[in-house]
Amino acid sequence: MTADPASAERPRDGTAGQHGTTVPVIATTSLTRRFGPAITALDDLTMAVGPGITGLVGANGAGKSTLIKILLGLLPPTSGSARVLGLDTAGHGEEIRALTGYMPEHDCLPPDVTATEFVTHMGRMSGVPPTAAKERAAESLRHVGLYEERYRQIGTYSTGMKQRVKLAQALVGDPRLLLLDEPTNGLDPAGRSAMLDLISRIGGDFGISVVVSSHLLGEIEQICDQLIAIDAGRLLRSATISSFTQASQVLAIEVDDGADVLAAELARRGAEPVRAGRELLVLITGEHTFDMVRDAVATLGLPLTRMEQRRHRVEELFRDSAELAGRLTGAIDGQ
Amino acid sequence: MANDNVAGAGQVAPGAGVIHDIGYQTYEGPRLGRGQIALALCWHSLRSAFGFGRGAKAKIVPVITFVIMCAPAVINAVVMALSRSHARVIDYDTYTGNLRVLVLLVFMAAQAPELVSRDLRSRVLPLYFARPIRRQDYPLAKYAAFTLACLAMIDIPVLLLYIGTILQVHGGAAVWAQTRALVPGLLVGLMWAAVLAAIALALACVSGRRAFSTGSVAIFFFMTWTLENVLTKIGATSGPPGPRGPVGASAAASAEHVSAATHLFGLISPFTVLDGVRQWLGGTSQGIVAAPAGYGVAYGVILLLLLGISLAALVRRYGSVSVA
To answer: Which of A163, A329, B82, B221 is 20 to 30 Å from the Cα of A185, by its Cα?
Structure first.
């Protein structure tokens, strides 16, 4: 327990000591995993994940699944090393898995048992004794928002309810770390925001560190303390959200027509407007940006339909500012 | 609606929501290790082999097969009570060969998929592998569970046979004689269970589709059993030399030749291999296959091969299941 970093973050584990020593929840050093000579799933990945909620961002095939397998101690790295909760994945896989809850991306629920039975059994499989497993299962299902429905067979559940059972089975062993693989997959907008709320509460109120992977960047940025972007197995960028937010505000301007004229006028006034469909996007550099836009629209006498301040999308956080303009267009078009 | 449910809770939550009031309870109790988790999995699987913890429908096949398997023990008790001699009519070590084969065949075909193909079908395995057990623990726990299930199917009726018998024999010596006869019977049951469970699970885990899974178990056991029976019968009918056949020494040679073929046919079906090994190891009761005589070693080797290959296939099958 002495090298347990999570305990430093969780008041309940005061007995574990080591307060003040913030060992990262996850740390990888030059982590590389190859499958045969041709495929490199992870390429010299060095990163650290702190407590709280961390977004793991990457397109499909970026290496997220391989990373999760290595972190769970189920796949040895080709080279480099990884530590989870202060434990080396080589040789401490079982200990790591005892303290880690994992929610896979795909369906993983038997249809013909009740949620209570299933989560209880999964609690047993996490090493919780029989009676405690029943209590933990009820507790976890309550936290994810399943009440009376928990006595129904899982096969009768909606997609949203199934996602919550998957989350409950990850929570049942009272983990220090949760690995959630695309938890909002297949959910409608209301279900997505409910799931994100839930994850946010787990990471905040429950004091469990969470790594949540997603390819939908916009949605995880709402709840994450830290973001890690990987692409083709390499670390694209790792940073805390707050370090970006100040510099990442944009102003979206929509005019009925004359967008081109306005773009020219804004450019003349020193802004770098980016055309995105019907909108013009301008980076907010301070209060004067608003004045400048107002003046430009007024000077040209254009009918202003909408003017909206937005937070930068996560995708843009990981791009060099020099490339911002071009990438911004791509990001918006890509939606 | 599912989603509304959580969304509603989320809206209530700020300030004094229900969820916030209750709070998250951490678990401070003991955490069991890998061995005890595997044991829990084994127990859970054993229960599911008989449909416990599932609906009434899941219990139909196990209950019916078990009742049929017990029938000879009951019949024996009745016959013993009615007859003058009070002699046991069924042997402990063979019980009733053909009935045992058919009942086990149905039981394995119906229940082995229950243990392995359900988890494959619902893709629940990654959840097991993400827990503090190792990969091979899962198939081995399943194997232990199904061995125990088959053992219960075989040996509980044998024990009933024993109880029915000792209630009607008189004197300690007679009870002791029955007990001494019982022990090899139970051990034969263990051998059957250990080998058949491995084969059945290895066949059942090829597919997550229950129909395929059941089909592969049923077809393998039934086809090999039928083939063995048919070939043995052919061997037996063509065996005795006809009137135009040679006489004397050459007739004896011919009979020997036929029985050699019969011994080899007995190696086709796992059931007859098991019975051959029983006789090779000293079992004297009339079984479902001719005593293997000089071929006993072959029966033993085939039995070990069946067990080893099946277990290797089972463990290997789960090595290739992907997690994420």
So the answer is: A329
